[in-house]
Structure formats: C-alpha cells, structure tokens
Amino acid sequence: MSTSGTIRLGRVWSVPVRVRPGAVLMGIVLVALFAPRLADAGFTRPWVVAVLAVASLYVSVLLHEVAHVAAARHFGLPVHSVTLHLLGGETLLESDSATARQELVTAISGPVASAVVGLAALGAGAAASGSNAAVLTTLGWINVLVAGINMLPALPLDGGRVVRALGWAVTGRERTGIVVAGWSGRLAGLASFGLGGWLFLQDRRTAWIDLALCTVVGLFLWAGSTQSLRIADRAARVERLHVRRMFDSSRPESDWPHLDVDLRGDALLRAMSQQPAEAYAVVDDDGEVLGTLRTRTVNRVYRVGARR
Q1: 172-183 pLDDT, tens digit each
Q2: Are 175 and 236 in contact (CB under 8 A)?
C-alpha cells in the first residue's frame, strides 16, 4: 500500500504509523451510526459515548496491527509501516512471506490478538459492576468487532490473507491462493451489498446509515479483491515469459546485450530493465549465441499470456 496521502502519527518499534483520510470518514460514519442507537438504549450523552467508542475502536485497531508487526519480526520480515484506513488497518511489509505458514501466522496474529483482548474485557466486564462493567463490556465488543471485520475473506484484510495462505498451502502455488482470496472477497462484497439492502428495507431510523455503511464496506471489499485478481493475472503473464520459448534463430548484432536462454519470469524482466534494448542476443551457459529475442515479442507474449 502506498503511503502517499496519509498523515503520520508516530512510531511503534521504529515502524511509522500513518492514518488515511478514509479512516477519519469511517469514524464519522460510525459515530453517526452508533449515537442514535445509544440514545434508543437510554444513554444520556449518546454522541459523547459514540465518539469515545470509535476512538477506542481505532486504538484497538492499532493494537491489532502491533500484533502483526511482532509476528512479522519473529519471521525476520522487515516492516515498512502501519496504516489505519477505511476498514481498519494494514501492516505493510517490505518483503513477502516466503512460505504459506509465514503468511498464515502473520495474517492471523492480528485477529487473534483482538479476539483475546475482547474476550478478556468481556469476562472482566461480566465480573465488574456499574460504569466499570459498561466500559469493559464496550471495549470487549469493540475488539471482537475488530477481529470479525478483519477476518472477512477479502484482500487486503487479514481474512483474505488467511484464505490466500490456505489456498497456497493446499495447491503449493501462491498465485492460486491469491485468486481464491480474490473471488472470496468479491462474494463477501456482494454479501455486504445484500445486507445493506435488507437492512434498508427494515425501515428503521438508521436505514440510510445502514445502507451507506454496508455499501462502503462492499465497495472496499470489491476493490481490494479486484486488485488482488489483477495482481494474480500479472503474475500469470510474467510466469509465461521464458526466453527459450520466445527467441528466434536470426543472428544478433555483436553489440546487442546478452540474455541467458533459461531466463524467465521476473528474473527476465529485471535483466531487460537493466539493459534496455529493442533486441537481445540469446546465449547458453557456455556463452554460445543461439539467436535473437526481440522486446516486441516479449510484450506480445505478455499481453496474450493470460489467455493461454
């Protein structure tokens, strides 16, 4: 995730913490959603309580992301930043998980941390009395809410990463896991739209707010899932780039840059970017020239690669 257009709040374990304007917008929506319901429940200052509840929600989200940071560092994965956004937060790693197990543990650590804090607060609230019980119970449900929302099966949410890790573990292919997570996220987005429509038809005072909130969630899930499917499509196209399958037997010029015949995928694209040219001499391990690879051929194979 890009950090442009964000506001920097500080650091946690030397990791920058940022917030997106969308998080502020979501906070306003949540306050508008909670306050009328708190008023119906008999709270004397529903708007104040709603603001405090939403502030507690974002503190809980931050604790959730700190758990991700701890898990990533356990596996030696460098962390770029923590960003609070429209539907919670994201811990941006500087490198991808090397295995499905790393991805699963890193992804699920946040929801587990939120669930543990939430259940502990609910237990403490049940044992307390008066205002302390109300505060602890509210904090507990907020953390349970954070865990539940983040386990929605759509990237970049943790639930989507869990689905990706499971798909990766079962098939042995990370790209397959991304595709599975992408489609599960689209289904979750459609379900959110459907829920919003159903709540709107209930004709309650908050019907429009319910519809707006579910629509925002649905759009977020759909957009994230669509982006993940585009990433998977790009990976599929890049995987099919193999010098051995694309070069021709024409004799290259002596001053053309060389490419090894076994180069493929990302390694091939990196080699071409380091020596930009319209054509390359293809050589084997012994340095013998085998033919010519033209950049336009690579571009054509990339464009049609996903159709094969």
Answers
A1: 888 888 899 899
A2: yes
